[in-house]
Protein 1
Amino acid sequence: MKLLEHQGKRLLGQAGVRVPLGRVVTTPDGVREAAEALGTRVALKSQVAAGKRGKSGGIRFAATPQEARLAASYLLGTGLGGSIVDTLLVEECADIRTELYAAVLNDPATKGPLLLFSTSGGMDIEEVSARDATAIRRAAIDVRTGLTAETVTTLLDGLELPAELITTMLAMYRLYRDLDAELVEINPLVITTAGEVIALDAKISLDPGALGRHEELLSELDLSPRPEGTELEQRGRALGLQYLELDGEVGVLANGAGLTMTTLDAVNHYGGRPANFLEIGGDAYTKATPALQLVLDNPRVRSLVVNFCGAFARTDVMTEGVLDAIEQLRPEVPIFFSIHGTGEEKAVGLVRERLGVEPYDTMDEAVRAAVAACAPTQKVMS
């Protein structure tokens, strides 16, 4: 469960981490009043469980209460990261000297907590790692002893940083431990011109399986479930389908997560871009009509690949379900089939008989045809 920024900052502040003064508001007039009370240049930060809010336009700055109200009118009610912005955090701006990155997270490699630190704060940590892996310092934490000041001091060896940074990271670990958290991240963690260490952002994820141990926290923070993901992804979850919306044009229906991923890789290999991940293996083929509707409701979809490979699962049964969906929904985009495995002969016959099209002999041929249908003037990789 991902906490919103203001919820995370509240917990960080209670744990002893310095955070900016701020107020949580839901109306433009409330934003204006908050800016007046803070009496300085303010940041308006959309409170949604999504990353890269700054790059997506979800964070604005204002020098006056009137500017803050105008910015709030723009932000409130807009869509961001698959959610509607209905709450803003208005907080004072810091006079930044240095931006850092710090996080405590679950580490699959060591099967325990891991402390991460970088002097390249304010950037996506993935970008930092890709550019220079040595820019990120790591310290595995033994849960039997916890994080110690000595460990943090060793991690920061050679860097001229305020001593407050050590107490900040120790507080982050205590919060991680006490919350049964999966992640406690501050990016950026800044040093001001006055030498103060302040958390300008907060990303905290809790282990859903441990929420029963934190009933007081749930009521205190009002952690009512918020929909995450795009509208189509939310519909997919409601239907019990594993659907992920992507930014391409080639729709994909396949049985099994592995085959679906392989199909997506093939679309990319042949110069196309997949529009979705959606596997309808197991009993999901019984939901072929709503599954196909999900794919078609993505306005970017310009072609569709149906890729079935059956061992225990019968491809003729899955194909019949998809054909029923196609006849009911009558999609206007071209559809390209690749069918192999148990029931293949009957499945291929059904496609020929009911749609009058010929399935392709291989997945690669079907994918190449789908990519070409999306971009007929674009050269398709061979």
Note: Residues 377-382 have pLDDT under 50 and may be disordered.
Protein 2
Amino acid sequence: MQQNNNHIRHHKNDRLETIKPDYRGNKIIKGKFANGDELYYPDFSKVLKWQLTRNPQREEKKRDDYVPSVKHGCDFITSKEDMVVWLGHASFFVRLKGINFIIDPVLFSLPLVKRKTELPCQPEQLLNIDFMLLSHAHRDHLDQQSIKTIFKHNPQLKALIPLEVGKILRNTCRHLPYQEAGWYQKYDLVPGAVEVYFMPAMHWHRRGLSDMNKMLWGSFVLKTPELNLYFAGDTAIGPHFEEIADLLGPMDVCIMPIGAYKPSFLMAKSHLNPHEAVRAYNYLRGGTFVPMHYGTFDLSDEPPSEPVRVVQQLAAAGVLQGLKLPAIGEPLLLKDLQ
């Protein structure tokens, strides 16, 4: 689709390093962020079709009472080990080189969507967090109550976020320091032992009636001399996975979304299904595969156990190497994953 160049501009944080050669910044078309060169708007008619169409797996879903198991306790907070800990949905605690990160923290139920799983500990027990990473501003990834709670108990916290998402943080926690990045940019707030890069994802933004694609979305790579850790955020399948591996090297740990993919006519340009998640992981030349974005909130039509069952089948067939399915709150020690 051709675009009038008068309506196109590029945006990045000029104070940050950009690792893709000659990259001008994220393309903004008619005031809206694009997926590379393509504007994407979720089609309301497809949402309406979803609401009016009977789910062919409705009865199966109704009988499916799967929820992820939970390992209770907060020892992972006080441990000195480098680790990855799933907190449910797309929320993770990560320690690298002794630096504590929390990613996309959503610690409570959402408006109209009840959380199905417990946390391993109380939200106020999540202490000594150095950095909060937010992949995008959809409500199941950026929750203002969770951010307020974490910042209240972690006054040293700094946030690493996409372009324009600072507008939400200023209204949420006025004194929370943050740094915005565009795709292919390296944040400069993190001590030198860990590098954090904001990388592409194929997704979209909307929180209100008039802010469609006014804020950026993306993924993260956390890089040390020994390890590359990739957090996919929300994304559809696309060429960005291979590009990320080409720019930053194979991803030793890949945190990949596997849920909220049915009906495909609605979800295919927003989320990965399990087969696509495995394909993307292979494009990333991945090591350990840690699934997320399933089991915590009911956001789609597939039965809750289906995403897990499919990735287990792919692992058994040899298509997926390195699958780890931790309980919520179960530490995956990085020394054991390499």
Note: The first strand starts at residue 8 and ends at 11.
Protein 3
Amino acid sequence: MISLLRARKIFPLSILSLVVLFFLWWLGNRTWYLVETRLVRVEWLEEDKVSRTITTSGWLIKEEQLLPSPGRGQLRLLVSDGQRVRAGGAVAEILLADNGNDGRKIVVYAPRGGVFCNHIDGLEKVLRPGNALEMEAVEKLGTKSASPGTGNRVEKGEPVGKLVDNLSGIWYWCRVPREEAGAGRWSSGQPVVVLWQGRQMRARLEKITGEEMLFLLSVYPGDLVHQRQVQLELVTGEVAGFLVPPRAVVERDGQPGIYVISRRRATWVPVQVLGETSGRVVISGQSLSTRTRYVTNPFWVREGDRLE
């Protein structure tokens, strides 16, 4: 009798537990469905051609001349940073502070035409066209930045700025990855397209020694004059493929792939990554075409999920 009463009590509890579990299962699936439909983004594949580039880091070599202060005193610049001045033009004046020279000023004149720059890095006499240098030795030297400005105290002989001859071009000296340097496609005198901060320039390969290369940039953006150590991309060709955001590529056992929509289901397919440019990955695959829809944010997607 007691066992029968216990069974009658347990039975309703079991039914209630099953109902709760079923409700939780239904709620979970419904929530996941809403996540998929609201958060998952599906787009058509876009085909395009992009530049294949090599990213390099190197040094700019310029025709530049330091402008030393003729005396000790307070500096007052007469031209702005980046302003082009003529030969003989007044660049700065020094309010002398030596005994007996109170109130006397000395003017600093430009010995040649060029762009005035007050970014001093200590490599002006080292990185000069024609110097036989080793990049490793220059990298160990490093830079010693100084930017003298109006109101600063300067010592006699201390640079108040420099002149950069922007008409003679700029040389770019860099180290290229070993596998690229030995590819056999580089030769002296070869024209090369380079990119700096997305801006395109034309250069000429002047010299190649092992992994080190020297390029001449005849025409370049004006603000490049103020730079010393920069990153430039060397354009080595074009590659055609489909452009997708990097997050769309999902790896399985080391194999990259993307989720495509096949028969309204999310299906992972392997792809080959050809390169990357401007925040987009270039891919190719046997089953891909411009009629293929793919998931741009597969974080919320599982294999076989139903997607419209």
Note: The first strand starts at residue 42 and ends at 44.
Protein 4
Amino acid sequence: MDIKGQAAIVTGGASGLGAATARVLAKAGAKVAVFDLNEKAANDIANEIGGIAFACDVTLDKGASAAINAAATVHGPARVLVNCAGIGPAKRIVGKDGPMPLEDFERVIKVNLIGSFNMMRLVAAGMQAAEPLPGGERGVIISTASVAAFEGQIGQSAYASSKGAVAALTLPAAREFAQFGIRVCAIAPGIFSTPMLKGLPQETQDSLGASVPFPKRLGEPAEYAKLALHIVENGYLNGEVIRIDGALRMAPR
């Protein structure tokens, strides 16, 4: 797809991978809508890139639908969706204080999996009704999995479960939407320099970077964003979960 002039939605777009993706898509000529719970930060990114911003909880049916419709009134129906909204708290299944509270597990699944599915189903409905572009394409949906989907570490039971489900969702969604010319992929990042990791001591960040085979550093959000743009532009990428991790394979802990 030639993204120039097309409407795009980026969830979790106020920081980290989402903000980098919003910047890269806008630079490529897309009309970007930044969705995030943090409305002020979303507006800051939108003002920077010449886009629009909406406060959005991706887990809510009516709230997400309202934000999507509001974005469409300004930019037109979205042709691109990049799901970057997510959380990753660490907790053992059974810790020193006993079993993990069930609501902690549910919260991670709700944001990372249900939120991604919610946005996918709502945006895809609009894509299906859109006129096809040259070549028959109507849209591209990209979700964010993780290497934890494949090598979840101790303490990542909830996170790995949610990201594994995002990975597993990719192919059946791509198969279902193929008849409408909508492609679906997912990106599985390794250890990236996001706000969550930047909050760790520098020594810890350096140690994590050194664990990557090559290059021996944390991934940069812009590198994720460039891959997202390539997926949009490469019309033969479909139904695939693409790792971007410097050949990292996570150890148990």
Note: The mean pLDDT is 96.
